[in-house]
Design a protein that fits this description.
With 161 residues, the protein is α+β, with helices and mostly antiparallel strands. The protein has a single domain, classed as Hotdog Thioesterase (Thiol Ester Dehydrase, Chain A, Roll), CATH 3.10.129. The model has no long low-confidence stretch (mean pLDDT 95).
Length: 161
């Protein structure tokens, strides 16, 4: 007798693949909030090699009018990484790649701030077998202030014929 409950790793996923045609302008993709702790500051400093004292010396920061250590701009931008949210799980096997990104840093982010990123489909450009999905990135802080915005572009497969 065949075991109909056989586990298959390729079926262990968020859900079925969604294709380019399944996406809609205005559709949003949640990314978990994250508090910018001293550990994240230290890890980003180590990974980036950015050793400017504005990112790790509290007295230096206070002497320049900041209430605490100032987050690296790219440390803020990476909070919008699609892989930290549901987008790549929703589109599954149709994702080909991350094409480009842009960021604007609108307000300071300090150690201890909590950031709330969101991606929203803002444009869909179909091609022959693929399409480019443009996503608007917004990152707000715990006070509701928009601290960063920008765009991401992804190459996604169309539904197979």
């Amino acid at each position: 007798m065949a075991d109909t409950n056989t586990f298959r790793p390729e079926e262990h996923r968020f859900g079925p693949t969604h294709w380019f045609e399944d996406l809609k302008v205005g559709q949003t993709f949640y990314i978990n909030s994250r508090t910018q702790t001293e550990s994240l500051f230290a890890a980003f400093q180590l990974a980036s090699g950015d050793n400017h004292p504005i990112h790790y010396d509290r007295e230096y920061c206070r002497a320049r009018g900041h209430r605490d250590m100032l987050a690296h701009g790219l440390q803020v931008a990476i909070q919008g990484a699609a892989g930290a949210g549901i987008f790549p799980h929703v589109i599954g096997d149709s994702l080909i790649g991350f094409l480009e990104q842009s960021s604007r840093f609108l307000k300071p982010v300090y150690c201890g701030d909590t950031l709330y990123p969101m991606l929203e489909v803002s444009d869909l450009k179909p091609g022959h077998n693929t399409g480019v999905v443009t996503m608007k990135l917004t990152i707000h802080n715990q006070a509701g202030a928009l601290v960063c915005d920008g765009e991401h572009k992804y190459l996604v497969k169309k539904r197979p014929q």
